[in-house]
Design goal:
16 strands, alpha+beta, seven-stranded mixed sheet
């Protein structure tokens, strides 16, 4: 059914959703022509709004969606009595493999609703998680506002990695501390109009001499730990301008070598769709360890700019190796750290895998910071898969999963 009225008998959970009246919002499948209203709603609540071609590309460029054709809704919206969209949730399909079986995965995109419809908006999440024929729901962008709803609907933490912490390297110490110190406001008292500009200038003048010793201390700590943890390697590291035919060969070898691990399909076609606009925007670094014409490992990094602080960051989005070890991640990170420094990037960071005590990133990254909530949850929709995924050895999670790097 394309649409339905949410009435008293349409309740997701009595614990988290209040009864809707007979005049409540209408839930229907989203359509491409809804873009303007959805984008306006996302913008009002501070979400990153994709331009229309990028938004459409999430589905029309997606190889999995093209195969499913009309059997897959692009998402759902809530409409008020006047037909205005007051809530929205995108629905993105992914294909995974585990033990020779193909796993259809659903992931949400930009769950948002007007304040008056927050209760009803939980129906959007329920529809996403429980849609028919989907084997698995993945979400690696869970926030403080959504964690209660996600767990109430039966989702569990991914058992591999630490998804509420970030390990990072500072690669431009002076620039990083200039940004941090420039944001500090030591004045808690209310200020008259125009006073803050004057006080901010005074604060910058007083703290400017501190930036150099602060950055020097951090440099000594970071350089020492980097030198001791990032061993030199004879591995041949090459930057890749895009995803070529070698990535198809690598994917076939990777899934053959790791049949017991849940892996997102990483063919050349899928990688090209996933990172198309990051590549076009010169925000993606693809770095590989090569053995002649073959790839034996690769890492994908995404470059971002924090518009508020001006901090330039590079995130490790994905790392894959044919031997399923982190031995080749070391030369890939060393190459990337060098490029970050040469381009004035302030920090390189990673969240998720290998942050457990004694794991590679835990020992290699000089700094750690805590996130406000665990960000990666899942729900398997059949008992067999649920049991299999309770074992952390079945996981190789990264920011490539779900929509974190879309």
């Amino acid at each position: 059914m394309d649409s339905e009225i949410i009435g008293p008998d349409r309740i997701v959970s009595t614990k988290i959703v209040q009864k809707e009246t007979r005049h409540g919002p209408k839930l229907r499948n989203a359509r491409l022509e809804d873009y303007d209203q959805i984008a306006s709603l996302e913008s009002r609540f501070g979400l990153a709004v994709k331009p229309y071609p990028e938004w459409v590309h999430l589905w029309q460029g997606n190889p999995v969606y093209r195969n499913l054709k009309t059997d897959w809704p692009i998402g759902w919206v809530l409409e008020d009595e006047d037909g205005k969209i007051v809530g929205s949730m995108g629905n993105i399909p992914f294909l995974y493999e585990l033990e020779g079986r193909r796993i259809l995965v659903a992931s949400g995109h930009n769950w948002v609703a007007d304040l008056a419809y927050r209760s009803a908006s939980l129906l959007l999440l329920h529809r996403l998680i429980t849609q028919p024929y989907v084997d698995l729901y993945l979400n690696n962008t869970v926030s403080d506002n959504s964690v209660t709803a996600v767990t109430a609907l039966g989702c569990s933490r991914v058992p591999a990695g630490i998804w509420d912490e970030v390990g990072y390297w500072i690669t431009n110490y002076l620039g990083c501390f200039q940004s941090i110190v420039g944001l500090k406001n030591p004045f808690a008292l209310p200020l008259r109009q125009g006073s803050w500009t004057h006080l901010k200038a005074m604060w910058a003048r007083f703290t400017k001499p501190l930036r150099y010793p602060l950055s020097g201390t951090a440099f000594l700590k970071g350089s020492h730990l980097t030198e001791t943890s990032m061993r030199k390697s004879d591995a041949e590291v090459k930057a890749c301008p895009d995803f070529d035919e070698r990535f198809d060969i690598f994917w076939e070898d990777l899934k053959r070598n790791n049949p017991h691990i849940l892996l997102a399909v990483r063919t050349r076609e899928v990688l090209g769709w996933h990172f198309r606009h990051a590549l076009l925007g010169n925000r993606l670094w693809i770095v590989a360890v090569v053995d002649g014409p073959r790839l034996v490992a690769y890492a994908i990094f995404n470059k971002t700019l924090n518009p508020r602080s001006g901090v330039k960051q590079v995130k490790l989005v994905d790392y894959q190796s044919l031997d399923n070890s982190t031995s080749l991640l070391e030369p890939l990170l060393a190459w990337t750290l060098s490029r970050c420094r040469s381009e004035g990037v302030h920090m390189l960071e990673h969240t998720g895998r290998w942050l457990e005590r004694g794991e590679f990133i835990d020992t290699a990254a000089p700094y750690r910071r805590k996130l406000s909530t665990w960000q990666y949850f899942y729900r398997a929709n059949n008992p067999e898969l649920r049991k299999r995924l309770s074992d952390k050895q079945a996981w190789a999670p990264s920011l490539f999963d779900s929509d974190a790097s879309l």
